[in-house]
Amino acid sequence: MRISRSGLLILIGILIPVIVELRTLFDMLGIEISVAGTLLIGVLAIGVIVFWATLPEPDDSDAA
Amino acid sequence: MSSAIQEQERERELGHDEFDPIGTLALIGIYFLILASMWLFMYFVEFLGNGPTVVGMI
Amino acid sequence: MNIHRYEKLWLVAALVLIVGFIATITYGSVGLGIAMIDDEAETVNPEKLNEHEDFGEPGVKQVGENEYEVYVRAWQFGFDPGSVEAGLDPIEVPANSTVTFYITSEDVIHSFSVVGTNINTMAIPGEVSSVTVEFDEPGEYGILCAEYCGAGHHTMEGKIIVHPEDEYAINGTDVETGNDTTDETEA
Amino acid sequence: MGAYIDHFPREAKLIRSAFYTSFIMLALGGIFGVIQTLHRTDVVRFIDSADYYTVLTAHGVFMVIAFTIFFLVGMFTWAVTTSLERPLEDMSFSWLWFLMMTVGAVITGVTILLGFVESVDVSADVLFTFYAPLQAHPLFYIGLVLFVIGTWLAGADWFRSWWAWKRENPDERIPLPTFMVLTTMIMWYIATLAIAVSILAFLLPWSLGIFDHVNPLLTRTLFWFFGHPIVYFWLMPAYMMWYLLLPKFAGGRLFSDPLARVVFILFLLLSTPVGIHHQYMDPGIAEGFKFIVMTNTMFLLLPSFLTAFTVVASIEHGARQRGGDGYFSWLKSLPWREPAFTGMALAGLMFAAGGFSGMINAGMNINYLVHNTLWVPGHFHLTVGTAVALSFMAGSYWLIPQMTGRRLASKPIALLQVVLWFVGMTFMANSMHRSGLIGIPRRTAEPQYQGFEFEAALGSVSELNAQLAIGATLLFLSLTLFLWNMLITAFNKSAESPGENVIPTPLSGPDDSPAVLDNMKLWTAIAVVLVILAYTLPLASIVSRGGLLGRGGDAFPVSIDYLALFAQVALESAAGLV
C-alpha cells in the first residue's frame, strides 16, 4: 500500500465532489458530459487511484 | 486520540516566529480566485442572463 | 497585537472581495437600473380587497402607449388573474411593453415568482408589491408561489402570456381586455 | 489531568444528557428529512402531499432548533467549566434550565407531530419560520417560549461561573473558550428579544383568540431579527470546535488567540443588524434599508474569512510539527485516520463552498435569482447541515468518550460515517443549487406544475431529483452509522482513558491583544446601538404603514380539514369571477 486505507477512503471521498462539480463546471463552459460519461470518468479515476495505492512501496516501509 | 499519540507523532516543536503559514496562504489564495471568478460568473452570466428583471419606474 | 504578515495580506484581500461584491451590486442598481421591491405602493386592507379601486377588479390595464398595469391578487391557492387551472384568465401582455405588476395577498403570505426570470416578490397581506418589468420577446412564463402558504401550496401556479405586439393589438385589446371588463362587471 | 468526567463528574452527566437529547432530535429530524426528500423528488411517496408540510416543519424544528441548541448547551458547558477550571455554581439550577428546554422542545415537537393525527385538532404546520397569518396551535408557541427561556437561564449559568471566577482572578484575561461562550450568549440575548416580543406580544395572544389579527410584515421582520443571528448561534459551537479542538487534533496550536477574540466580537456586533437581508423581496421595506443591511451582511463575511485563515494556519502548524512540508504536501501529514479531525476538516471544506452561495444570497439584487428557490436550502445544508452538523458529529467522537469515560465503539465506522456525510452532501447540495438556478422552489411537496415545466440547464430535472435522492439516502445512512456508533459507545463496557481534556495554548496568546477586547459591557453597548440603528426606522415604517396589529385579515390555522374548506371557497370565488 502506498497510502493508508483511511487515506484512500478520504481521497476517494474528496474525488467524488470534484467529479460531480467538474461536470457542472464543464457545462458552464459549454461542454456537456452525460451521466454515463461522468460515471465512467469517476470509475476510471477511482480505479487509477486504487491501482496506484495498492502498488508496492518503492522504497522503505511506511505501511499503515 | 490521546495526546500521548500526538507526542509520538510530533517531529518538531514550532513556535510562533518560526512558523510561516505559507501553505495556508496558498490554499486561501486559490479560494480567493474561485470566489472572485464564481461571483463574476453568477452575477453577469447567471443573474443578468436570466431574462426579464425588475427595473425602476423610468 | 501580533498579526502575521500573511494574515494581514489575507485581511486586505478579504476586504477587497467584500468591497467588490458591494460595488457589483451597486453597479446593478445604479448602472443597470435594477430596482428592489420597496415601500412605494400604498397599503390595503386584505379583508376589503373587493371594495378596492384596483384590486376589486384585478387584471391588465393599459396606461400608456406601451405601458400596462397588472393588478394581481394571490390567494390560497392561486393567482387572480393568472391561475388558468382554477378557471381564471392568464395574465396577457404584449411584447415590447413595460408592465408594472401590483401584487397583494388576500389571506396569507405568498410569493409571485415567474419561473426562469428574475421576477420574484413576496405577496404579503396588507402590503402591495410593485414590480416593473420590460417584456421584450413574446413567450409564455409559469408563475409559482415559492412561499409555503398552506396544505395546497404545491398546486399554486399561474401563467403569463406575452403576445407578439401586432397580435395583441388586435386580439389583446379587443378580445382579451374586453373579456376582462365584462367578466369583472358580471362578478 | 485526565478526561473531563474525572474532573467534573456532575457536569459530565448534564452535558451527556444534553448531547443524547440532541442526538434523539437529530434522529427524528433525519427521518423526516429523508421522507421529505424522497417525497418531493417523487422517488417514494407514502404520505399525502398535504402532510409533507408537517414533515417539513418537523425536519426544520427538530434539526435547527432542538438538535443544534441542545448540542450547543452541552458544548458551552464543557467550554466554560474546562477553561475556568471550576464546576458549575449550582447543579440544581443547571438541571432546571435543561429541564425547561426539554419540556419546551417536547411540547413544540408533539404539537407539530399531532399534525399527522387527523382526529386531534392540534397542528403546527407553520414551518420553522411560522409566518403569520398562518397560525399554529398555541402550544407550539408556548413550547418555543419555554425552550428559549431555558437557553436564557443556561446563559445566566455560564455568566455566573464567569463572575465567580473573575472575583477570584480579577487581573486575568478571560480564557478564550469562556470568551466565546459569553460573546455568543450576548448575541443570543439581543436576538431572542425580538422573537420573545413577536410571540408574547403578538402571536401567542392572537392564537389564543385575544387579538383578531396581527401585522404579518411586522411579525415576519421580528422573526428575521432573530432568524439571522440564530444561524450564528448554530455556527458558533462549530467555530469553537474549529478554534479549540481542531488544532489539537491536528497536533498543533491555535495560530492566534487575539484574532479569535476579534472574530467573536465581530459576530456579536454584526449578526443581528442584518436580518432584513432575508426580506430583500418584501414589499413595505424601503430599498435604502435593504442596501444598508446588505453592506452590514457583506462585512459579516469578514469574521468568517479571518476564521478560515486562522483555522487553516493552526492545522498547518500541526502538520508541520508532524513533519509536513511544501506548499500543499503538508496536507498529507495530517491525521486523516482520526474521524474527529477528518470530519471537522471536511465540514470546514464544505463551509467554504457554502460561504460562496451565502455571498450570492447576501447580494441585494442578485437575490431575485435565488430567493426561495432550492438554492437556499442548498446553501444552508452546506452551512448548518454540514459545517455545523458534521462538526458536531465529528466532535462527538472525542467529546462523548470524554463525558462517559468509555471508548469510542468503532473508529473505522466513524471515519466512514464522516466521509459518507461529505459525499452525500455533495450530491444533495450540488443538485439543490442547480435546481434553484432554474427556479425550482423550496418548501414545496411536489414541484411539478400543470402549466409549465422547469428547464434544466444541464441534464434534466429528473436527473437533478435523482441526485438529490441519492444524496439524502447517503446522508441518512451516514446518520444511522453515527447514531449506532454513539449508542454502542454509550453502553460500551470497555472503559479506556479517552485522553486528556486539555486545550493547547495558542501560538499567539491573549497577552498580545489589547485588554479592551475583554470589555463585555462595551461590546454589548455597541451591538445594541447597531441594532437600534438598523431596525428603528424599518420597524417604525412597518408599524406606521400596517398598524401594530395589522389592518385586518383573518388568521389561518393550519390543519388538513381546512384544506377542503379553502379549496371549496377558492373554487366558488373562482366560479363567481368567471
Can you characterise this structure?
Chain B: The chain crosses the membrane at residues 21-45. Chain B: Keywords: Membrane, Transmembrane, Transmembrane helix. Chain B: This is Cytochrome oxidase. Chain B: It comes from Natribaculum luteum. The complex is a heterotetramer of chains A (64), B (58), C (187) and D (578). Helix content of chain A is 69%, strand content 0%. With 64 residues, chain A is mainly α. Chain A has one domain (5-52). In chain A, helix 1 packs antiparallel against helix 2 (35-54). Chain A is elongated, with a radius of gyration of 15 Å. By secondary structure, chain B is mainly alpha-helical. Helices cover 57% and strands 3% of the residues of chain B. Chain B is rod-shaped. Chain B starts with a helix and ends with a strand. In chain B, 28% of the residues are buried. Chain C is of the alpha+beta class and 187 residues long. Chain C has 2 domains: 1-36; 46-174, Cupredoxins -  blue copper proteins (Immunoglobulin-like), CATH 2.60.40. Chain C is built from 2 helices and 10 strands; from the N terminus they run αββββββββββα. The N and C termini of chain D lie far apart (80 Å). Chain D is 69% helix and 1% strand. Chain D is mostly helical. In chain D, helix 6 (176-207) runs parallel beside helix 9 and helix 6 (176-207) runs parallel beside helix 17 (520-546). Classes of the chains: A mainly alpha (64), B mainly alpha (58), C alpha+beta (187), D mainly alpha (578). The interface between C and D is large, with 80 and 94 residues.
